[in-house]
Design a protein that fits this description.
Bound molecules: D-xylose, nickel (II) ion
Order of helices and strands: EEEEHEHHEHHEHEEHEEHEHHEHEHHHHH
Number of helices: 16
Strand content: 5-15%
Distance between the termini: 41 Å
CATH class of the largest domain: Alpha Beta
Strand order of the largest sheet: 5-6-7-8-10-12-13-14
CATH architecture of the largest domain: Alpha-Beta Barrel
Structural class: alpha/beta
Length: 433
């Protein structure tokens, strides 16, 4: 045991009226919601990078946090792992997620970085025998090191393409070894700063080939998890190729990968793309691409990816409603890709940020489930489209413009406008949330 979280108690469910800061008011892992345990619906994951690797910097200032594991070397990396698993236990977190760079020191060579990663993966594997937390997903950090400043798979320099491919291979091996349920690719530098030096066509070909190799390697090693792409429109690149769900769908179709890859949708990224979170989830579900979520919001004023913990139940309820409609998570889950504010220095802040976020999500899930089970919203939506149930109307979807034109004339069809009932439906929604 380290003493980092000393005096912080195990967080347990105490119900909505508890006065205890260190307790869940809504997240009750064993409570049944629509026939499934709440823990199995939400599948919470702690993000290693924000909670244990991030030092509190912003564009105007550096480190604010003072953690005993900051620094280089394997001993500190292991101390960090010890503290991480202590936090997973305190929260009862069923999952965690990591990048290679979060967990191991960078080596002087590729081979040394890989050895460091393997040593930490062994250390994780040993811990996972006595702790219940599992790996939701692993990923490679292909954006922080300067070698990736012009992209990883889409870099004009073939040596960087090679280095990125080797790195992804080692991270897929690590994820597989730890029984990870998914493998994520987020391409922060897969985009451009200026079109003046960029060949869009080539870069798309490189990205398509890279992802095809990832999928081939998954099958080669027998990894049963899901490959997930995480869309984001910009930041750090001025323009990122995996802009949003619709863009990634087009990319997957182009390279014949739509049956192999699904999506990890992040709330803040959806907003940056000019969408709502629920739009991105619903669209992914309708395309058969829904995989997992990163549950972290932006500050609506500042307009960039501030990665804050969720605090808005009505917003989250919209998201979980769409997830329930999509049939819920399979291999995916709710990853808190969220960091503390840089003034939140205390170990308690880290625990309470997650405690509150888990409660917000649980409350949102319960509201969404009640609405879903009530069924009125879905019935109303179905009624709106019910004209299409008539055979003569359905037949139009397999006929021609001239046949339909003839029908309009013959039957004297004149459309009768109908209310979309938006405010009534909003009232209904607000009865549950
Ligand atoms: C950054 C992304 C990143 C991915 C994992 O904006 O959200 O944290 O989730 O590489
Ligand atoms: Ni993310
Ligand atoms: Ni993000």
């Amino acid at each position: 045991m380290t003493d980092f979280f000393k005096n912080i108690p195990q967080i347990r469910y105490e119900g909505p009226n508890s006065e205890n800061e260190f307790a869940f008011r809504h997240y009750n892992p064993d409570e049944m919601v629509m026939g499934k345990r709440m823990e199995d619906h939400l599948r919470f994951a702690v993000a290693y990078w924000h909670s244990f690797a991030w030092q509190g910097g912003d564009p105007f200032g550096g480190q604010t946090f003072d953690r005993p594991w900051f620094g280089d070397g394997m001993e500190l990396a292991k101390l960090k792992a010890d503290v991480a698993f202590e936090m997973f236990d305190l929260l009862g977190a069923p999952f965690f997620c990591f990048h290679d760079a979060d967990v191991r020191p960078e080596g002087a060579t590729f081979a040394e970085s890989q050895r460091n990663l393997e040593e930490i993966v062994d250390y994780f594997a040993a811990k996972m025998e006595s702790h219940r937390t599992r790996l939701l997903w692993g990923t490679a950090n292909l954006f922080s090191h300067r070698r990736y400043m012009a992209g990883a798979a889409t870099n004009p320099d073939p040596d960087v393409f090679a280095y990125a491919a080797a790195t992804v291979k080692s991270c897929m091996d690590a994820t597989h070894r730890l029984g990870g349920q998914n493998y994520v690719l987020w391409g922060g530098r897969e985009g451009y700063e200026t079109l003046l030096n960029t060949d869009l066509g080539r870069e798309a070909e490189q990205a398509g080939r890279f992802l095809t190799m990832v999928v081939d390697y998954k099958h080669k090693i027998g990894f049963n998890g899901t490959i997930l792409i995480e869309p984001k429109p910009q930041e750090p690149s001025k323009h990122q190729y995996d802009y949003d769900v619709a863009t990634v769908y087009g990319f997957l179709k182009r390279f014949g990968l739509e049956g192999e890859v699904k999506l990890n949708i992040e709330q803040g990224h959806a907003i940056l793309a000019g969408h709502s979170f629920e739009h991105e989830i619903a669209l992914a579900a309708s395309l058969g691409l829904f995989g997992s979520i990163d549950m972290n919001r932006n500050d609506y004023q500042s307009g960039w990816d501030t990665d804050q913990f969720p605090d808005n139940v009505p917003e989250m309820a919209r998201a979980y409603y769409e997830i329930l409609r999509a049939g819920g998570f399979t291999t995916g889950g709710t990853n808190f890709d969220a960091k503390l504010r840089r003034q939140s220095l205390d170990p308690e802040d880290l625990i309470l940020a997650h405690t509150g976020a888990m409660d917000v999500c649980a409350r949102a899930l319960k509201a969404a489930a009640a609405l879903y089970e009530d069924g009125a919203l879905d019935r109303s939506r179905e009624a709106r489209y019910s004209g299409w149930d008539l055979p003569e109307n359905r037949a139009m979807l397999t006929s021609s413009l001239s046949e339909i034109a003839q029908r309009v004339v013959d039957e004297g069809i004149e459309p009768e406008p109908r209310s979309g009932r938006q405010e009534r439906l909003e009232n209904l929604w607000n009865r549950f949330v």
